[in-house]
């Protein structure tokens, strides 16, 4: 155990300097049994000695892909399996469980939630039913009780039917954490670090010191344009700067393939956020209209990334609104 402790020291130092995290419905037809027999392509890939992950598609969520658009990770310890994120539907979570069962008969003891966006948590009820303990950051409680979460679920029941239906529900954590937390399962240590408000108020990253693996949640997107939404991009950039100081061999991003080049990949997400802010800040300050600012910006560095057309304009608009608020 001493061995892990000294390896984790740079992380702990980085974390000690970290600011405290801030708190923050239906369809008919299409019999579920038929649809549920269709599987998406999912196969667990090895990350390190103990860690594995499955990689979601670089796409928007749809009935056709069962909402398999985000990654989930898992670590096999001698005492059970710890899962990072639960995927975007209960059916996907079942498939993830089947992948885990190919590797070990041990039960899933914990699911650690990196944040409560739909594509990462709609599978939680499957793990909960198996007896897993759900662990997440306390800032998500506000979201879970919000109209936004309820309305999102209602529209998902339409858009993602039959994978999301009236039986799909939002599952709160069994253990809410509010600061850096260590979890030890079967002598394997997991360091849970709040990094919100960034992508969401409740962002958590999970560091596995034994293998130097960082499960970065949606702080890191690869091979696609990040989804910015209501993110606090200023804190997000600062969080990435911190993550860049970790002693990391492999990063498992929230979306996209594994990274052995943590620095480059985190830097791309960071540079994108920095550019969004820079290009929109000037316009917001001068009260220039958004459309003109958007057209004047040079997107050439990012426009070849997948989902640029789907999300860049919305990201820029959300950032423009954020910049207006920050200027005031
Ligand atoms: Zn996501």
Describe the structure.
The chain is an alpha/beta fold. It has a single domain (about 1-235, about 250-260), classed as 4-Layer Sandwich (Metallo-beta-lactamase, Chain A). It is about 40% helix and about 20% strand. The chain contains eleven helices and twelve strands. The chain has helices at about 1-15, 30-35, 90-105, 120, 125-130, 140-145, 145-160, 235-245, 260-285, 290-295, 310-325; strands at about 45, 50-55, 70-75, 80-85, 110, 135, 175, 180-185, 190-195, 205-210, 215-220, 250-255. The strands form two sheets. The protein has a seven-stranded mixed sheet. Helix 3 links the parallel strand 4 and strand 5. Helix 8 packs antiparallel against helix 9 and helix 9 packs across helix 11 (about 310-325). The longest helix is centred in the C-terminal third of the chain and has 24 residues, at about 260-285. The protein starts with a helix and ends with a helix. The model is unreliable at about 1-35 (pLDDT under 50). Bound molecules: zinc ion. Zinc ion (ZN) binds next to helix 4 and strand 12.
